[in-house]
Write a structure and sequence with these properties.
By secondary structure, this protein is mainly α. It is built from 5 helices and no strands.
Length: about 100
């Protein structure tokens, strides 16, 4: 006979992992979009994996890492820091 507690425990562990992954990704996305980590963490804690979809739909601020470096940190920015990307953008606007 299988104990139902053990079955519930494995499912709960998988749901816990999904919840934590949702919090991590939502926090990272909100930080890259210029809102800071806390709003993403709060939505991740409340909405789990749905928070990732929410933060993919939220528009990025004009001076955010998402706009300056691209969607991923090693994307179109060429490995530049945000300060280097901002300086390059200001130089191109001055010309």
């Amino acid at each position: 006979m299988t104990l139902p507690i053990a079955l519930i425990g494995a499912k709960a562990l998988y749901l816990l992992y999904a919840w934590l992954i949702g919090c991590i990704i939502a926090s990272w996305l909100s930080d890259r979009k210029g809102y800071g980590e806390r709003p993403g963490l709060a939505t991740g804690l409340l909405l789990s994996l749905v928070a990732v979809l929410v933060w993919l739909l939220v528009p990025a601020k004009a001076d955010s890492k998402w706009k300056l470096q691209g969607r991923l940190p090693f994307g179109r920015g060429g490995g530049q820091t945000v300060a280097e990307a901002r300086a390059r953008e200001h130089r191109s606007q001055d010309r």
